[in-house]
Amino acid sequence: MNILGIETSCDETAVAVVEDGSVVLSNVIASSRQSFEHLAGVIPEEAARRQIECMIPVLEEALRKATLGWSAIDAVAVTKGPGLLGSLLVGTTTARVLASTLGKPLIGVHHTFGHLTSTWLREAKKQDTLRPGSEQARYPSTALRAGKIQQSTFPILTLSASGGHTDLWYRESHTRGMLLGRTRDDAAGEAFDKGASLLALPYPGGPSIAKAAEGGDPKRYAFPLPLEHDGTFDFSFSGLKTSLKYLLRDFRLDPQSDPEMLRNIAASYQFAICRHLADKVNRSLRRHPETREVHLVGGVSANTHLRQWMTTICGIHDAKPLFRFPSSLAFCTDNAAMIAAAGFFLHQELGDRAFESFETSATLPLEETVLSGSSFIP
Ligand code: KG4
Ligand code: ZN
User: Fold this and answer.
1) Looking at the structure, do residues 108 and 211 belong to the same domain, yes or no?
2) Which residue, 353, 267, 276, 341, is CA-closest to 305?
3) Residue 358 buriedness (CB in 10 A; 0-12 / 13-18 / 19+)
4) What pTM value is reported for the model?
5) Do residues 79 and 56 both lie within one domain?
6) Which atom of ligand 1 lies at the shortest distance from residue 165's CA?
7) Which of 56, 98, 212, 330 has the fewest CB atoms below 10 angstroms from its CB?
8) Strand (E) positions, the chain?
9) Residue 302 near ligand 1, beta carbon < 6 Å
10) How far is the centre of ligand 2, averaged over its atoms, from the C-alpha of 59 (Å)?
């Protein structure tokens, strides 16, 4: 099943074609992020205007790269929310027109659910896409038989951390599971972004802080461990950001004029964010020792320091759950391949219910419909 995915929830215009929820035949993204680098965020109207301009060229490029004709597309999947409303509408309007013109089903996907499926994505090998329809091109079936695509095993504990959310899920299947914990204030990515802004580093803050932290001493400055005695699996990052603010103010530190100080502060701040995330994953694994795999997804999953923490945490538990993160950096941050993959798994588990009509919505809590052990995907 070839699904064309469209993702426009923030500043990106992304289109991808994914076969059977795993094999990425194309994954094209145009971003207007560079024009917002000097700001601490995105200007919504400006982002949507750029998306209108980019949509058709990106669509055509995605189809060309997949070496498929329109007739080979079996369904269209699109991010229905949450995100910037104007941006989302560019994507959903395009998807609605496309699906109705092609006479194919349309699947509305929650953005976070897209991230949850990003660990299933694998780049297609070139020869697999050159001759569509040929035996070699039946990539998933042949590759699965040859064991080239690793299958994940539930139950899975998934930490989904981005600029907009930080959620910890216990999942029994793609569409069944429960939310164990979530952030009570800032998201983990937001903590990186706000920290970078305090340190006068460019947006987005995650990669900036990770780069600035290289070679720094993560124990040089001690930040508190949030919600240490709380007993829940929730997160809180606003205290860390405030600690950084007061550290700079009270000690009159000027990291911009002292490269070593900047390295050490960035390393210590990154360490504090990652330790907090890892601490809650560790506690959840103790509560759910039957967990087979731990997945890290969302923009923050690009962080190598955090990946090291997760590897260590999985190693200290008796069951030795497998740790996975998206196979490419392009699948960590926002992309359309994860939306196409999510569309596939929604259809696989919900059947034609996946094709039900939907509204585009800026606020769309994924956990609202969560009941332990029941379907949690609206
Ligand atoms: O998932 P994403 O691309 O967009 C949202 O849905 O928010 O995540 C973007 C977030 C930003 O806050 C960015 O600072 C963070 O992911 N991020 C990182 C890294 N790369 C991106 N955080 C830590 N380390 C990174 N290497
Ligand atoms: Zn995202």
Assistant:
1) no
2) 267
3) middle
4) 0.90
5) yes
6) 7
7) 56
8) 2-7, 12-19, 23-31, 75-81, 106-110, 122-123, 156-161, 166-171, 177-182, 293-297, 322-324
9) yes
10) 20
